[in-house]
Amino acid sequence: MTTPRTLTRAALATPLLALGLASAQAPAPSAQQLATATYVILDPVIEGNQNLVNADQRRSILEAMKRDSGGALKRRYPQATIAAAPTANAIQVRPVFVAPNALVPWNKLGARLELQMPQGQKYSVSESFGISVLLRYRAEFVNYMYDQLATRLPR
Q1: Which residues make Cβ contacts (< 8 Å) with residue 50, sequence separation at least 6?
Q2: Does the residue 135 lie in any domain?
Q3: Model confidence, pTM
Q4: CA distance to 36, 40, 150, 154, per residue, from 70 (Å)
Q5: What is the number of structural domains in the chain?
Q6: Range of 139's domain?
Q7: Which domain CATH number covers 33?
Q8: Within a domain: residue 136?
Q9: What is the 3-state secondary structure (H, E, C) of 49-91?
Q10: What is the helix (H) or strand (E) element at residue 132, kind and residue range?
Q11: Fewest CB within a 10 Å sphere: which of 17, 41, 65, 113?
């Protein structure tokens, strides 16, 4: 037979364990929450081999990443707002481009949208693209890339 003292400890431990698990895993944002949100596009980041392009090309790519990631979110969620500066309720979005070691046909380019919710949770969507996709879309590649990522967000 178990003593009341042991039962009390077990009864107290169970809700605390459940609470700890619930707070460790925040639910993903809903489609409705994302559809009407305010987004702030943070400065984009290029990871990997940045020496594949010169400084002017890199600056142009970073500008396109900021512009095109915001455009992709707006096309995905027409009721959303893209704000120029962070606010307390805005979802902060960091566009990331992952450059390969070399521009050879078998390497992949990567892209990621990192979202930080106003409550602090972080989510990201990512995808890899072949070099052939870069050659096919050329000047519109960054736009295409972030449109593809936006389709991975809930609708």
Answers
A1: 58, 99
A2: yes
A3: 0.81
A4: 14, 8, 10, 16
A5: 1
A6: 26-150
A7: 3.40.50
A8: yes
A9: CHHHCCHHHHHHHHHHHHHHHHHHHHHHCCCCEEECCCCCCCE
A10: helix 131-137
A11: 17
